[in-house]
Specification:
174 residues, mainly alpha, three-stranded antiparallel β-sheet, 7 helices, globular, binds zinc ion
Amino acid sequence: MGSALGLEAKRAMDAGELVPDEVVVGMIRDRLTGDAAQNYLLDGFPRTLPQAEALDAMLAQLGAPAEHVLLLAVPRDELIRRLGGRWLCKRCGRSWHEVFAPVQPGMCGKGGDCELYQRDDDRSEAVQKRLEVYEQQTAPLIDFYRARGTLREIQGELAQDEVYEQITQAITGA
Ligand SMILES: [Zn+2]
């Protein structure tokens, strides 16, 4: 969206800053007042209590409250294994994983091999740091949404199709 909010978000990102919460909430509001109002999925937001409170207030105003909040719970050891094994290709952008999506030769373009690198925040020290930030800033959202009766706990350490099944059940009530 080429909105004033979008430009503000771009300015912040170009400057290497975090996009202010009110800008993100404003962009979601703009999007939800369009055709997405009936069905929407937010991923990676909110991550802090102030963000959740601002989002909640805005969604209440729109009359489009979040019906289901999915918590994909994964034991810490497994998280470290998953995050630490992720590699990206410098040329095609493909995402590989040492355990879940092992590299196949000749996948980059016409027979060339992918040129792999690991994102700075997927390196092990950075993974520890991300988990600490999660515990401090994001984990409190579990009680916030549990109190609202919207929290749906998913066993995220299971296989992909089992996780998919649990999510489907959680949001359809089947
Ligand atoms: Zn590649």
